[in-house]
Amino acid sequence: PYFLIKQIHEGMKVLLEGAQALGLDNTYGTKPFTTGSNLTPAAAAHSAGLDTDYIRNKFGIMKLAPMSRVGWGPFVSEFGGRESELHCMANNGKLHSREWENSQYGHKIKEMLASGDPMQVGIAFRMMSGEYGASKRPRRTGMFDAVQAKELIAAWGFNRIFASKADGLPIYAGTKEETVPIVTGYKLNGRKINRIPAEKEELYSVKPVITRYEIEGKDISGIREQRKLPVTVKRILGAIQEHINADIQGIGVGPDAEQYVQLAI
Predict the structure, then answer these.
(1) pLDDT averaged over every residue in the chain
(2) Where is average pLDDT lowest: 23-37, 113-127, 183-197?
(3) In this structure, are residues 193 and 187 in contact, taking their beta carbons and an 8 Å threshold?
């Protein structure tokens, strides 16, 4: 820590990267389905031996289309709900690997996407967006959850927000509804709530309130300038910013580092 502090005082810029999403934080996450440590910006500083006063900027990164999760636990916006959870976690996530799903569904991805069956839509999205772990375990996929994003952003005061997987938005044009669904509210026992339940039983029972937005099916992975983004994508990004009460400063439109679009704030 003393070496690091010395370097900072001499002007060095230090980047601390969170290894997991805040939804898996062992205090604020979906307990008991969390990782073994705190994942907040404050925890990053303390883990590096730094006081939180050294933090100058907090960058938040969120997935748009789809959101994903690895492991067991409540996932309000999940395509297919508990059926998807059981499918993805069979044999600790090793049964339905990337290769297995490709052999079973590779020939009918578009058909599954347009089926209207949430479970099939989730599998199709996973395959089309490459949502598999390093060990090829399937990641559970779902709609963008603006409720969760807003709460986490507000709790930790991120200075900058960036969104990856924006290139997945046009995939929704191939679904039965041909629109992008965004979770903009939660319902528990038929009543709308303004909180994320702490108890797993309640969180498993939450039903998402969904708002839909028009989308063009145009591939945006080759776009590098904001002005060239389709109008529908711009509208969706604007709506998301309103829902999460934060500005998105840039979006990823593919897996490579150069597949990035800076947004005007």
Answers:
(1) 94
(2) 23-37
(3) yes
Task: Calculate mean pLDDT across residues 74-92.
Answer: 96
Instruction: Write out the E strands in the chain.
Output: 59-63, 67-69, 140-142, 144-145, 160-164, 179-188, 191-193, 207-214, 248-252, 260-262
The pTM score is: 0.94
DSSP structural state of residue 11: T
Give the residue from 181, 265, 263, 171 showing the smallest Cα distance to 225: 263
Q: How many CB atoms lie within 10 A of CB 33?
A: 16
Taking alpha carbons only, the member of 67, 20, 59 closest to residue 158 is: 59
- Asked if 224 and 236 count as a contact pair (C-beta separation under 8 A), the reply is no
Give the relative orientation of helices 81-89 and 118-129 as an angle to the nearest 10 degrees. Answer: 50
Closest CA to 175 of 232, 110, 239: 110
d(CA 243, CA 233): 15
> How many residues can be counted in the chain?
265
**What gap in Å lies between CA 138 and CA 78, rounded to an integer?**
13
Q: pLDDT tens, 222-258? A: 999 999 999 999 999 999 999 999 999 999 999 999 9
Residue with tokens 């509210």: 185
pLDDT in tens, 25-58: 888 888 889 888 888 899 999 999 999 999 989 9
